[in-house]
Design a protein that fits this description.
The protein has 250 residues and is an alpha+beta fold. It has helices at residues 15-21, 71-86, 148-152, 158-168, 176-181, 237-244, and strands at residues 4-9, 27-32, 54-60, 93-96, 100-103, 106-118, 121-131, 189-194, 197-206, 212-216, 221-224, 229-231. 21% of the residues lie in helices and 32% in strands.
């Protein structure tokens, strides 16, 4: 995405909060070396070693996007990150509904989107991204984190990566079919859990408004909004080993 002002902060509590307190008429991306109160969705926190990962928030004003179509922004930023990372990572990237970026069965990136409305349209949108770039070990109880450094065995320039993501971000031209083609667990039966307990199902599609459609082993179609269903993912053995050997970011 062109014409985006870049602001770098050595430290802040939250890049999303910083943008809310510093409104701007144009597109602004603020990135930081460290967030003292970085968070994911809900009450989740984001583990990030100081100066090692890419933590940024992007303020946009997608006036042409209707409130009912706001999931298109989630698809657009997910696709932009996958496109940017595909330059370095040849295989294994996917999008875990609605917008986590995965490498194989491990979480590489989390995204938090906060939109404000004006009538039937979106007025402002703040997109917060935590991307594990150069961190080598993770100490939190997150079950399956991974970084680009762990995948590639070398470090990457965080600012250059941010610019690649912004260049690939096209919120006005979203390829929904491509988003669906990149979905994590897009083939086969896999374990999930909802309010009624665990079950196995295959992924059918994601609807334009963001609802996930599954079909379980009994042929029953299940439709979920965000947070109504979870993916059952075992803790990575690689993550456990890295934590044991360490002395030391959705």
């Amino acid at each position: 995405m062109k014409e985006t002002e870049l602001i770098h902060l050595a430290e802040t509590d939250s890049t999303n909060r910083w943008l809310r307190e510093h409104p701007a008429e144009g597109n602004v991306a603020v990135w930081t070396d460290y967030q003292s109160a970085g968070r994911g969705c809900g009450t989740n926190t984001w583990e990030s070693e100081r100066g090692r990962n890419l933590l940024f928030s992007l303020l946009i004003h997608p006036a042409a996007v209707k409130a009912s179509e706001q999931f298109s922004i989630s698809m657009a930023i997910s696709l932009a990150i996958v496109d940017a990372l595909s330059t370095f990572v040849a295989e294994g990237l996917s999008i875990k509904w609605p917008n986590d970026i995965y490498w194989r069965d491990r979480k590489l990136c989390g995204i938090l989107i906060e939109c404000s409305l004006s009538g039937q349209h979106i007025r402002d949108c703040i997109i917060g991204v935590g991307l594990n770039v150069n961190q080598e070990c993770f100490l939190s109880d997150a079950p399956n984190p991974v970084s680009l450094r762990q995948i590639l065995a070398h470090e990457l320039d965080r600012e250059a990566l941010l610019k690649r993501i912004l260049d690939a971000f096209t919120p006005d031209e979203v390829d929904a079919a491509r988003y669906r083609s990149l979905l994590y667990r897009r083939e086969g039966l896999h374990p999930y859990r909802d309010a009624d307990g665990p079950f196995e199902a295959r992924l059918v599609t994601v609807e334009p408004d963001g609802h996930l459609i599954l079909i379980d082993v009994n042929g029953r179609q299940r439709r979920y909004a965000f947070k109504e269903v979870s993916f059952e993912i075992p803790k990575s053995r690689d993550s456990e080993a890295a934590s044991r050997n360490s002395e030391i970011p959705v």
